[in-house]
Structure formats: structure tokens, C-alpha cells
Fold this protein.
Amino acid sequence: MATDGEAINDPLLKVISSKKEENYYVNRLRYKVSIKNLDAWFGTKQVLKNINLDIKSNVATAIIGPSGCGKTTLIRCLNRMHEMTLGASAKGCVVIDNNTNIYDKSVDPVIIKRRIGMVFQKPNPFPTMSVFDNVAAGLKLNGVRDKRLINDIVEESLKSAALWDEVKNELDKPGIGLSGGQQQRLCIARALAMQPEVLLMDEPTSALDPIASSKIEELIHALKKEVTIITVTHNMLQAARVADFTAFMYIGELIEYGPTNQIFKTPHKELTERYISGKFG
Amino acid sequence: MIAAACYTLLMIALVVFSVGNGSKDILLKEGFFGFLTGTDWNSVEDRESYGALPYIVGTLISSALAMAIGVPISLGIAIFLSEMAPTKISVPLSFIVELLAAVPSIIYGLWALFVFRFWVRDLIEEPLHNMFGGSIPFFAQTPFGLDVFTTGIVLAIMIIPIVSSISREIIKAVPNTQREAAYSLGATRWETTRIAVFPYAKSGLLGAAILGLGRAIGETILVTMIIGNTIGVAAIPVSLFSQSQTLASLIANEFNEASSDLQLSALIGLGVVLLILTMGINVGARLLVSRMVKVSAGARE
Amino acid sequence: MREETSGQNSSNNQKIQDIMSRRYNRRRVLDKIVSVFAIACVLAAIIPLGSILLEVIRNGASAISIQLLTQPPGAIGATLESSGGIAPAIQGTLIVVGLASVIGIPIGILAGIYLSEFASGTRLFPSAVRLFNDVLTGLPSVVIGIVGYITIVLAVGSFSVLAGAFSLSIIMIPIVVRITEETLKVVPNSIREAGYSLGISKWKITLFIVLKSAKSGVLTGIVLAISRIAGETAPLIMTILGTSLFFSSFTKPIDALPLRIWRLASQPYDTAHSQGWGAALLLIVIVLISSVVLRLLAQRKGFKVKAVHV
């Protein structure tokens, strides 16, 4: 995680000549995901129109908007899951760390998913696997065999997902034996075990009760120090609670994007203002 | 409506009662165990004796062959149609596979008798016999194409449509969120099938395979046409290319020409053995399946 | 350029990144191999089908003639002109299968609806019905023929249409029950609940809403069942016996296509074999056409494509 102080000492920046240039590079380095001119379709119906969005590192960014605005489609484009649906397609650039365009022809979509993890709306642990095996699933799948390493990472991930204390004595129990909120944290742990750089969350709390939801929201606050989080939510208040930056979308277009405070207190666009104050959506 | 449901129970009762009653003569005479292990099939008056063992062996071997060949192929087809093929291909192909199930077994029999046996004999059996006949007893006898081996292969073809189309439905019923979970962890398509689909669908897939086994064991007409129809001890296959006889095929061959009540009773006795085999498979499979269903019950909303 | 986090995490991270990259190629190759295997399996099924259809058409087409279709069988081993035809068998199949369906389909569907809609999973009676239905599905058709023999042939005193239809219906019912129940079960509960919330009675919901959305599945099940029994030979051997005469009464023997083919195939004469192929062609045409037609109808009448997300 690059803070201001560390960036200035970074050898890469030693050739910078002025403060302005320095700021420019520092800022650019801190964009984890840069979305440029992204379009997406389901068949012939265009659902994303020319999205341009720069997501910063190690913050939580929320994407809000009314039903049908394309927010879920947008994050599914970010780990190339969107095109896996029959008839779906996407075009444009999504650049990670300023060096990899995941839509480039040379990039294997399967490998991308190791760097960009995803948590789904409805918790989906593998029902035939235990808690431990669920978290370890991604590791084992990708060829990690070292038992001690796996044990370490599983414990670490469950701790990051604030689930360790609740399951540490029951790691062998089936994953679906947990409550809804616990299952969702299990899925988060499973995604975290892959050590992703970005974690996409598609309405992670909409299937959960309020208590479980707030646990997940706390989790997001803690997690964003380790991973860049991009979460879709239809609950504006949740976005206000959880996100550092918010993007507002409407019918496939990005209407406004900025620090959460600014979006909610002093939105620049009228459409944003109307949505925030509940006039529609 | 309840009456309609009762009809099922009635039929079972009828089946059990009628074959039980019909076979009591032979079972009293030879004893149940004696009948199961006997190898005679002698209908000469005053020296009648009947035993089911050769046909039990024939049935088991031909069905085992059918499963060994047919189930993997069916799974492969199910995977291809549900996970791999784009709709443009999978829709017509699945249509074709379902049509395979519509071909009556008598027609499989005709084809196997007049066409396929020559393929098997020339392309598989003779080469195997020539290469390994001396060393491996499985391939020792001279192959004619009408034997337990060909029977096994054709039975495999016959169970493919059932096993694969049910497997396909089962696989399709696995929720997509499971697959997405696997993909989001960086799984390839086969790996997603392996860790997200198969474990979830395990019980259903087993059920599909068992249905196939049941079909293979009970298949009658095809077998009468290509297994060689030997009787008694000669019906016990000593190699893959032996002629043999199954429980079902002997019943079909001799039922209308049974020369005595005792022989008829013996044939019905074969039916009892067949029944026990089949019911055993079904009930056993059901127990297995219900145990596995409990696992995925929680995730099934 | 990866994120730098605290010491332990990043070294674990580095280790697994290396391992994952190294293992990936092998996994990709395996994926391709499985794809090839799956395609090979499809071919393994299609090639025999193609061969069967080809042979039946090739050998059967030359045998089809007015004589074949309208004449009763002639003497065994006779020349082509005096070998007659298979007309009684054609008639017999239609009658016996028809009668069996009339018995079997209503019972099967009703029982299937009962099991799916009116009986919850673990009560004794429905569980027993399900269990025994499953057992019935797996019963060998010869055994069912034996049952038909003992029940009807011995009772009526002779091999008969009734015995054959009875046996075939025993085969048919469990298939229809199972597929009806399975198909109805797949209809999502939200549809039923929507009906309840509108105050519609359970009967109507089942009949008009649930059954409707499961229609194509149920229809496919019925077609499968009919095709299955139309081609069944074994249960007919000891129930209808087969004859060279046309239909006279429900309590007399009758011929049927599968039975006739079987008998013809076992004769050593070419004319007999040729007639057999002709009969086979007929049988396959009946069976496949009904399969295809009903399947297409079912598709058109309402299989919706899966939903798409926002």
C-alpha cells in the first residue's frame, strides 16, 4: 500500500523533476482499476455505455443506482465474468495497476480471476465441502499442495473475514451448515484466500438480515486496507456508511463519481441529487 | 388421485405375488439356494433339474461390461451438452440423443445381429484374439461376434441415451451460482464441472447410472439375438468371446415352449432371481441417493 | 506490481503466485483433453445411431410394398410373392399400444401430480408410493410379461390383447409418474405462492398454472413412455403370443410389430429377414415421427429461455 511518504522514496520516482510531475505519478500509481470506454451488451441490447471510471487503491468504492442501471453488469465486466453469460459481450479497456488491460487479447480471462475476486449476492459456499475446504478451494484448484501453507492461508483468510473465532473449532463442518451471514463471510474468506488485489462485491448484504449485514459492513472497513473493494449496492445508506468513493449510474451510463461525502452532500448532477433524495429508484 | 397412487402399490403386490406363486414349484423342489447355485437345465422327464447360476453370471458380466463402457460415455455427452456446447449445437444434438432412446430394442437387435457384430468381430475381437489370445484368458476363444462381449457393447449403447439425458438434466439443475463461485476462483471449465457441478449432482448422476444398469440387466430381446443362447454349464462365460445366456433371454426363449409345468416354474424362478437383482439395485441406490441428498439440501434454495 | 502488505501475508502471497502460475499450463491442457474426450463421447453415440438408421432405411425401404403393408403373413420360407406381409402386426401394435396408453397415461399423470403437489416428502404413504414406483421403473419387461401371463392369460384362458395391453401399461405407468413428478417439482415454488396469494384454490393452481408450465416436460415424458412400450417385445411374447390373423377380439391373441420382427429375424430365410427390415422401418417411422412431432410441439408451446441479470 503506497502512502504519500513511501511513494516519494520509491526509486522509480527519483527521476521526477517537479512536484507537479510527482503528484501526477503518485496519483496515477494509486489507481488500481482504470475503466476506459467500456461498453457491454446482452445480445443486441446495450447495457453499459461508454463507462470511464478510475478506482483508487485500497479504498472502498460503491456503485449505486436504480434497478436496471447496469451496476452489476459493470462489476462483472471487471473480472470478465460478464461475457460468460450466453450472448453477452463487452468492449473497451479495463486496466489494472496501469499495466494490464484485462480485455487485451493476450490476457487469459481465467488468470484474471485470480487477481480480482468476487463475492456474490447470495452466499454460495460449495455444499459438499467443509468450511476449511471451502476456503482452501481456490488454492487447491490452482495447484497449491503444501498443507502447511494452505493451513496458514485458510486461517489468515478466515481471520480477515472476521469468521475465524466462530468456526475455528468446527472447520470440518459442512460449509452450508453456517448461518446466512456466516456463509457470506465464508465466501469472502474463500475469495480472500486467493490473495486478490481487488475484491468485487455484488450486493453482498441484500440476502442477509440487518445484524449480519452490519458485520459485513464492518468487514469492508477493515478489508480495504488489504484489498481494493468495489461494491454494488442498491442501499444508498449502506454506500454512505461504507464507501470512500461512490459512483452513481443510471440506465447504463455513469452519471457522477466522486468522494462519498461529496456525492451525498453536494452532488453536481441533478439526476444524482434526485436519486439521493429518493425522488426515484 | 389417491387411487391412482395406490395403483402403483397394487402392481408391486401383484408382481411379487404372481411370480412368487408361479415359482414355488421349482423352489420347493430345488430349494432356493440350490436353485441359485445349480447349473443344470434338464427338461427330460423324470430327470428334470433346473439351476439359475449360469444365467446369473451371464447377466452380471454383460451388464458390468455395459456399465463400464456406457456410463463414462454418457457422462462425457452430458458434460458436452450442458457445459461446453453453444446453444446452436447443443439443442439439435440433445434432440438427437433423445431420439436414440426412442429406438426400440428389437431394432437394436436386428442391427446388432446383421451389421454390428461383424464390425466388432473384425475390428476389435479378432485383433484382440490374435494379439492376446494365447496369454490373456479373456481373449482366448475364437470370436464370432455373437457373444457376451458384443452384447456388452450394444447394451452400453442402449443405456447411453437414458443415462446421458438424465445426467444432463441433473447437471443443468445445478445452480449457476455454484459454477460462478468456481470460476471466480480461477477455475477452468473442466475444473468448474469437477468441483462445483459433480459434487452437487453426485446423487442424481448416480441415480442416472443405476437406471442404466437396471435397463441393461432387464434387456431381453437384444440379448436373445446376439448372445449365443447356450444352456446350462456352457452358458457360463469363460472368456469375453464366449456365448452365454442371461436370465431374461432364457425366459424369453423358452417360455412359450416350456414342456412341463416344472420347467415353466423354473423359468418363473429365473424371473424371481431377476426381480431380486433389480429390486436390490433399486433399493440400494435409493438409500445411497437419499444419504447424499441430505448434503445438498441446505443449498438447494 | 502487487500490493505490499504485512510480512507474513506477502510471503505467502508470493509463494502461491509462483505455484499457481507454474501449474496453470498443465491445467489448461487437461481442460482441452477433457473437451476432446467429451466430443469423442458424442461421436460414440451418434455413429451407432447413424448406422442403425442407415441400415434400417437401406434394407427396409426395399422391402416396403403394398403387399407387406396389407397382407397377412404367408408360409414360412416361401418366395417373395407368396410370403405375404405384416399387416396384422401393424394393426396389433396400434391396438395394444393404444389400449395400454388409455389405461396407463391417466393413472400415471394423476399419481405424478399427487406425489408432487399433494404429498409432502416424508409422510409414509407418498414415500412408499415413490419407492415402489421407482422399483417398478426398473422392473425387467420379461418379468412384467410373466405377470401378465399369470394374471390375465391364465384367468382369461388364452393369450390375448388384454394381457398385452395390461403388461404394457404396467411398464408405462411408472415412467409417466416419475417424469410428471420430476417435471412438476422443477416448477419454482414462487409460481404456486403467487397463485395462493391471489386466492386461487390448490386444484386450479395445480391444473392451470403449475401443470401448464411443466407441460412440455410432461409431454416429453408421455412420448418417451409410448415410444418405449411400442417397441417392447418381451412382455408381448408371453401375453399376446403373436399370430398371422387380424384382430378378432380383445381376448384372443394378436400380432405386433416388434414380436413379428423377432420371429422373422430368427428364421434362416432372406425373405424373412427382408420382411423384418421392412417391419423395422415401419416401427422406427412410427416411433420416431411421434417423438419428433410431439417434441417440436412441446418446444413451441412454451419453453422459456433463462432469465438475464441486470
Summary: Residues 68-300 of chain C form a domain with the MetI-like fold fold (CATH 1.10.3720.10).
